[in-house]
Amino acid sequence: MTFAPLRNDSFLRACWRQATDHTPIWLMRQAGRYLPEYMATRAKAGSFTALMRNVDAATEVTLQPLQRYALDAAILFSDILTVPDAMGLGLSFEAGEGPRFARPVRDEAAIAALALPDLERLRYVFEAVTSIRRALAGRVPLIGFSGSPWTLACYMVEGGSTSEYRLIKTLLYSRPDLMQRLLTLNADAVAAYLNAQIDAGAQAVMLFDSWGGVLADGVFQRFSLHSIQRVLGQLKRTGADGVPVPRIVFTKGGGPWLADMGALDCEVLGLDWTVNLAQARARVGEGARGKALQGNLDPSVLFAPPAQIEAEVIRTLRSFGAPHRDGDHPGPTHIFNLGHGISQHTPPEHVSALVEAVGRHSRALRCAP
Amino acid sequence: MTFAPLRNDSFLRACWRQATDHTPIWLMRQAGRYLPEYMATRAKAGSFTALMRNVDAATEVTLQPLQRYALDAAILFSDILTVPDAMGLGLSFEAGEGPRFARPVRDEAAIAALALPDLERLRYVFEAVTSIRRALAGRVPLIGFSGSPWTLACYMVEGGSTSEYRLIKTLLYSRPDLMQRLLTLNADAVAAYLNAQIDAGAQAVMLFDSWGGVLADGVFQRFSLHSIQRVLGQLKRTGADGVPVPRIVFTKGGGPWLADMGALDCEVLGLDWTVNLAQARARVGEGARGKALQGNLDPSVLFAPPAQIEAEVIRTLRSFGAPHRDGDHPGPTHIFNLGHGISQHTPPEHVSALVEAVGRHSRALRCAP
Is B42 a catalytic residue? Predict the structure, then answer.
């Protein structure tokens, strides 16, 4: 497979901790419900599931935010639950209900019956990756992604969204052996899934450990972090075009375990808004084995008027401080993002204010004496 | 007012960082729905609200867990939203819905119209405190409590429970001046409320900052922590009987800000299960200005069988390590608790296993060479 040469490499450079002229920015869930053009494409497709499975429509919505905003990366439009769906759990989305599995996995027999998914069942994802990469035509790099083994397990056991995590935690504390078996299977499935995305054209990959933060200290390390490391160890290090593929890990609520996450075999750590960027940089962003840091504006800042958004952007950029300016040598770098997915209630023009402010003030930050 | 002399002072001693022969234990929400006798009393009272406002019934349910378990403290049975209710917001509880305010506070005019509540409207709480203290008859000390200024504000602005915090965060980021005005009022109301509980017989007081953890770094300090400090500065330091009253602050999700919380003018910090106790002890539990630490077992551990509960108790106790054994001199102490309220789905016999394990293993921990 050959693709157009990359014209904006600021995001990938920052992933590799190389200097850039501005702080690259992209937004988790940037192709989404806050955009009227997204709602229009989704309405045409018929449903979220249909949209996700339609390669042309998924390509279209992935590129929509790039028409509006000077973002430095695109992220595959898909769902984090495609893998368990391909394992046969029967994913559906009820209106206003969030995801639901028809066949949740709740006992030893159900876990024993699980197997790695046939990647053919996920071909619609890989085709979308290739289609999006072609449509991007080198404008910005494309990020592939998956839910983390633990996050997938939460949905697989609970059968849908939860605020209590009662079933999964009962399993975890009562039968840690079964929990590990499920996480090992998920890790291997996620690794194969991400490798296929890399083969299809993904230029970076990200693990969303959306529910890692609900675990107890010690339990997080033993279960979620350990299975993330199992994924990372299996990932291809270069893409179809021979270019190295950076790996991003984001644990929502993972702030308390930053030191542990700093030891992961990955290039970038995503941070939520509870994390102090200056402290995170000091702890895991400096030195030869440091990580690039991605984040971490509270998405709710985007509900405020542009002047307040700009003030919070400045605060966030200053908290990280000036990234290094030493060319290709690795050093501390920051990738601007939200600390979680953008809300559907965000006024689109507020995103313009955000992206503009990051571009302007991150350039100014580099010029300061 | 005179009360019977206190016979079990292990909890208060640990609050003051004095040595105890075992690690004292109590459980957040220990009088609650997981106990069939609680459900019976509540059914007799007619509703949660009626139960809370009935002094005899509130006394009865507060003492119920003490009949079953060797707990070292009682906590007033009440709701965290009594104060805004007394401000005239109109609290109600719909079945399965959680709390709801009839008149939420959402704009400048509504905030300007708020005033400190007439404490007469909260007399049922203070009468319950005195009644419970008498009924305890010196068996264990009684903890009074309130929601934190920020946590109350969340409910007051949102009008009920929320998972998005959209209205309150829009207010916070758009009009920080209004947010501060609301928090200042809440802080003064909470201080008056807790002081009246102290006058009525509360032997320790606790601030539940249940929603502090949803705030961004920097914003937490400026809004929630700042208003907590305003409460603490106004609290009476001794009770009706002249005995000093320790102050506990618990921010759920406050782990990232432990160093800031260590500077609070209070005696005890509550910790949730994401916090590593050994690290917390090293950071804020040692030294002349250290805090007693309270927590932090994941409540979901109680869904597992007794053997697993015991193993997790040992892990938690060992994580803190042996408390100091230097008599009345202040040094590191641990108060065992959950990292959040006990779940209604907890089997009551699992709580027996927990309390028994904490007693036994915390004594053994002190005998280790």
Answer: yes
Selecting among B42, B100, B247, B281, the annotated active-site residue is B42
- Assess whether B29 carries a catalytic annotation: yes
Contact A276 B216 (CB under 8 A): no
Residue B3 in any domain: the answer is no
Please state the rounded mean pLDDT for residues A224-233: 98
The number of folded domains in chain B is 1
The residue in chain A having the minimum alpha-carbon distance to the alpha carbon of residue B220 is A274
Residues in B closer than 8 angstroms to A213, CB to CB, are: 274
Q: What's the pLDDT tens digit per position in B101-111?
A: 999 999 999 99
Measure the CA angle with vertex A339, ends A306 and A311; round to 5°.
30
Closest to A304 (Cβ–Cβ): which among B170, B277, B319?
A: B170
**CATH code at position A139:** 3.20.20.210
C-alpha distances in angstroms, A94 versus A45, A49, A98, A100? 16, 10, 6, 7
Residue A108 has pLDDT above 90, yes or no: yes
- Is A2 domain-assigned? no
How far is it, in rounded angstroms, from Cα A154 to Cα A84?
11
pLDDT for A369 equals 64
Domain assignment of residue B250, yes or no? yes
Give domain status of residue B309, yes or no.
yes
The letter for the amino acid at B54 is N
Residue numbers of the domain that contains B355: 10-367
The Cα of B309 is separated from the nearest Cα of chain A by a number of Å equal to 8
Quickly list H helices, A25-76.
36-45, 48-53, 55-68
Q: Is the pLDDT of residue B127 over 90?
A: yes
Identify which of B219, B256, B308 has the shortest CB distance to residue A256.
B256
Which of A174, A217, A304 is facing B304, going by the closest CB pair? A174
pLDDT tens digit string along B131-168?
999 999 999 999 999 999 999 999 999 999 888 899 99
- Predicted pLDDT of residue B122: 98
Residues of chain B found within 8 Å of residue A178, distances taken between Cβ atoms: none
Q: State the average pLDDT over residues A341-356.
A: 98
Question: How far, in Å, are A98, A337, B352 from residue A68 at the CA level?
Answer: 28, 17, 60
3-state helix, strand, coil in chain A (%, to 5): 50, 10, 35
* pTM as predicted: 0.96
CB A161 within 8 A of CB A221: no
